[in-house]
Recover the amino acids of this structure.
């Protein structure tokens, strides 16, 4: 049985008030809150167990190294990866995608080669490819969504040409909530010899993920959306792609030998992890993932599906609210505008007075906003600890915003 009230007790921040109202935290798409078990692990890591990893032979260094390296196995299990050495630690999805851009794509692509993107991509999965466009003459090919926000996988595959060298696509849109059929995209791309990078930032927190079943070549996640610490994350890289990559950054740990006239790299994944890492952050991420798997990813997905359906039914009754992304297969993410409201910031400010935390702005999806013909939206994004009662509070706050702004 999924007991959301018991889960809520694990997150201390959810018991606080904002502006004299109980906090209703609906900004999970930007960053999720942290359970006490993660907070405790981070505190313990700094207060009782801290030392640098890999380089020491003393007790604390060995303890930190064992805990830090053990997280690789946790992430591999969380992502359904067979080999934990295919897990590269990062500070989040942005770093992971930049690693692929600089370490793999710059080695494999040349002027005129193409990268296929969907119009829904987050800037983290756009800007690194623009760097290649500016510096190497790589061409970016865009695939639009339909009026409901659905991305047809066949349209992505139809965009492949002999010059296509990579498809980079999100599994879940951070604005529309659209769940993309990445498995079909990967199967079709693989048949044509085209690698696929999947941005799993919004997907891995909402549903079970198995990279082997998806069939992608790269899968990036970010810890702060997974109830873990900021500046933690990882990217799964298929071994064959690792062998095609050069290091992204140089420094300690990623080398085997350094001399005046030559250098040899360490083996993957260390080859791609230069310098002192976010030791405690990664340990905290491992605890967060163990916590999620303990609750059960299928259970979390089922709970959030109920929240999605309940929220959709409530928002559909507000004929002055315009929801973006109405495809049936979507995560519990709702972006909207309000008739008569000057800006999304005005809506979010009123909601905040009622204790409801939502995000307002472009959500780092400039091409999607251009496609929708909008300057900004408000976004309510749900997590494992949200409730139907909080949806009701959101609706009441929106009705107040409509009364004041509509």
């Amino acid at each position: 049985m999924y007991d959301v009230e018991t889960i809520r007790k694990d997150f201390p921040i959810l018991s606080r008030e904002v502006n004299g109202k109980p906090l209703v935290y609906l900004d999970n798409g930007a960053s999720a809150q942290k359970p006490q078990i993660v907070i405790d692990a981070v505190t313990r890591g700094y207060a009782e167990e801290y030392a640098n990893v890999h380089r020491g032979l003393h007790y604390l260094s060995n303890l930190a190294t064992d805990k830090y390296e053990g997280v690789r196995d946790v992430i591999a299990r969380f992502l359904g990866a067979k080999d934990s050495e295919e897990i590269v630690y990062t500070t989040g999805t942005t770093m992971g995608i930049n690693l692929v851009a600089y370490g793999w794509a710059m080695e494999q692509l040349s002027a005129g080669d193409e990268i296929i993107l969907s119009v829904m991509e987050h800037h983290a999965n756009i800007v690194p490819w623009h760097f290649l466009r500016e510096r190497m003459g790589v061409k970016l090919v865009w695939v639009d969504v339909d009026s409901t926000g659905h991305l047809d996988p066949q349209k992505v595959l139809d965009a492949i040409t002999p010059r296509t060298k990579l498809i980079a696509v999100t599994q879940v849109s951070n604005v529309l909530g659209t769940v993309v059929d990445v498995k079909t995209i990967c199967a079709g791309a693989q048949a044509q010899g085209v690698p696929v990078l999947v941005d799993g930032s919004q997907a891995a927190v909402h549903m079970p993920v198995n990279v082997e079943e998806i069939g992608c070549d790269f899968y990036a996640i970010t810890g702060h959306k997974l109830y873990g610490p900021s500046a933690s994350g990882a990217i799964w890289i298929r071994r064959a792609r690792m062998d095609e990559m050069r290091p992204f950054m140089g420094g300690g740990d990623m080398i085997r030998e350094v001399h005046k006239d030559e250098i040899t790299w360490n083996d993957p994944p260390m080859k791609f992890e230069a310098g002192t890492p976010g030791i405690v952050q990664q340990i905290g991420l491992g605890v967060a993932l163990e916590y999620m798997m303990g609750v059960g990813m299928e259970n979390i997905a089922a709970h959030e599906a109920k929240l999605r359906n309940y929220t959709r039914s409530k928002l559909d009754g507000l004929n002055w609210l315009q929801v973006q992304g109405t495809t049936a297969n979507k995560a519990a993410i709702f972006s909207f505008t309000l008739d008569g409201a000057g800006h999304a910031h005005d809506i979010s400010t009123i909601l905040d007075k009622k204790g409801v935390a939502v995000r307002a702005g472009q959500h780092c999806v400039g091409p999607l906003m251009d496609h929708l013909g909008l300057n900004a939206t408000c976004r309510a994004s749900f997590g494992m600890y949200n409730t139907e009662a909080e949806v009701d509070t959101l609706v009441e706050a929106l009705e107040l915003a409509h009364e004041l702004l509509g």
Remarks:
- The first helix runs from residue 4 to 9.
- The CA atoms of residues 369 and 375 lie 6 Å apart.
- The mean pLDDT is 97.
